Fold this protein.
Amino acid sequence: MDIRGATALITGAASGLGQATAHALAGVGANVVLLDTDTQNGHQIAKQVGGEFTPGDVRNPHDLARSVQVAAAAGPLRVVVNCAGVGDGGRILDREGSPHDLARFERVIGINLTGTFNVLRLSAATIAKLPANGDGERGVIINTASIAGIEGQVGQVAYAASKGGVIGLTLAAARDLGSHGIRVVTIAPGVFATSMADLMPQATRDTQTSNLAFPHRPGQPAEFAALVLAVIANPYLNGETIRLDAGLRMTRR
Ligand SMILES: NC(=O)c1ccc[n+]([C@@H]2O[C@H](COP(=O)([O-])OP(=O)(O)OC[C@H]3O[C@@H](n4cnc5c(N)ncnc54)[C@H](O)[C@@H]3O)[C@@H](O)[C@H]2O)c1
C-alpha cells in the first residue's frame, strides 16, 4: 500500500520501537499521529517527525476515540501500529511460596492485550469507512507481540500470556476484518535495544544474546521499523505473526 499522504497512528510512540516507527513512517511521507502516556517525550518526538501527539492510555476508549479522530482529520487513516506495552517480571510462586499478585498480572494483560485490542477495534471502525484501493485494500493494523508469547522464560508469565494473546488474536482479527479490506499482521520481536530491554537483568540479556544465531547483538529499533514498512508495502501479508529475532530461541531462563 502506498501511504504517502495517508495517516498512520502509532501507539507507544514516545519511546523505543514506536518512536523508530514514527520516524520511518514520516520518512516515507505519511502523516504521523502518536499516542502515548508519556506526554513529555510524546510531544518531543511528534515535533521531530512533524506529526501530532495525542496523550492517552491504550486501555481508555475515550483517549483512543480522540486519537483516531485526530488521525482521521490529518488524512485517511490507513495504518495503525500498536507498540504500546509494558514488561513485568514475577513467578507464579515467589521464593516464599506466595502467589503472583493478581492485579499485576491483570495490569500487563490490560495494557498489552486488551489495550492492543482496544486500538484495533476502534481504529478498524474508522478505516472500514475509507474508500478501498484497486486491490480492495483499506488499511493495515500491525501489532507488536514478542517471542516471549511463544516461548516465555521463567518469571515472565504475565508478559508471555499477554503477548500469546496478541499472537492468538492475529489470524482471527484478519479473518474478521478481511471483508473490510483491512489486514492484521503481528511482529514478534526478540531482544531490541530499548528502554524496556534495559529493565532486564544483565544475566538474562547475556543468556539471550548468546542464543542468537546471527547477528550477535540486540536488534535496533530501526530494524523493527523497516519490517513495519515491508508489511505495509506487501498486500499479501495477512493474519501472520512474523518473528524478528536474529534466530533467537529463548531458553527456560
Ligand atoms: N525491546 C524489546 O526487546 C522488545 C521485545 C519484544 C517485544 N517488545 C514489545 O515492543 C513494544 C514496544 O516496546 P519498547 O521496547 O519500544 O519499549 P519502550 O518502553 O521503549 O516503549 C513502550 C512505550 O509504550 C508506552 N506505554 C506504556 N503503557 C502505555 C499505555 N497504557 N498506553 C499508551 N502508551 C503506553 C510507554 O510510555 C513507552 O513510550 C512493547 O509492546 C514490547 O512489549 C519489545
User: Anything to note?
Assistant: The chain has one domain: 7-244. The beta strands are 7-11, 31-36, 52-55, 77-82, 139-144, 182-189, 241-244. The domain at 7-244 is CATH 3.40.50.720 (Rossmann fold).
